[in-house]
Write a structure and sequence with these properties.
By secondary structure, this protein is α+β, with helices and mostly antiparallel strands. It is 31% helix and 27% strand.
Length: 319
Amino acid sequence: MSAIADLAVRYPQGRVDVQSLHAASGVPVDDILAVTHVAEFPALGKDETAWELTRDAAREVLDRTGVAPERIDVVIYAGSGQWDRPFWSPAAKVAHALGIERAHCFEVGNFCNAAAAALRIAGDRLDAQGSGYALVLVGDRLSRLVDHSDAASVDLFNFGDAAAAVLLTAGAGAFTLAHSALHTDGGWADYYHGEHRGDGVVIRREPHRRGLADAYVENFTMLVDQTLRALGAKLDDVAHLLINHGDRNMHQRLLATLGLPEGKSVFAYDRLGHMGGADTLIALRELVDAGRVRHGDLILLATSAMGFSWGITALECRS
């Protein structure tokens, strides 16, 4: 069974700050803080690119594990599809920069659920091969897709940027990819959409429609149940449930609905915004670095994305 050998996270030097958001949009500071929960958080600066952050994260993983570039069979770059350049392959760019020249490189666009989709694709491929390594890169430009001058976009003002790199192996690793459950409700496909303007693409939302909050809880609960049944496990067996940091209220509501204490999750709202598809990997890296993961732990990564897609990726700690 394929496994995560190692993972690394990188943050940009730039920041989004509440005072600038207030000046650009006219939205009161307190209303913005109700969304961001923090005065500033990492976001790509003017001259920073997402692909370079993922390159640096990937280089750290390869250096730390000692896996040579020529041993990588596949490189997948996961995100929204709005890359640093249009009609371009960031997977190929990063691979070439790292000296990975014989791998199949491609992108997966499933917004903030893309990392989960990429992990499943890469894991299935390694399981079929029975050998080899895959590199999943998570990088996006979420902060640049938000119109900070639009007061109606305030719910997106917590969008920041981060990158992650995950090295998968067909052999033994730190975390076995135990199960993956993914689901999309196309009834919400047009609720958010991109709009072209002179300086790029920005996200727009259709008029408010009730029911999305309930859909989040219902779909996550369904996928958690599905995953636990597949593993022959119970909710009490879950050591950690790590959730995309899009909405703190939703985070708390889901834990309460499942009956899991907040201590079984990671809350970084006092330090970070919604860092895209890297959210759950940031939380996992922090748990490992803090020594809060033990052999045999069952960890669920709960991811969600515009579209609307949801995913639960189950990991079993083997380190």
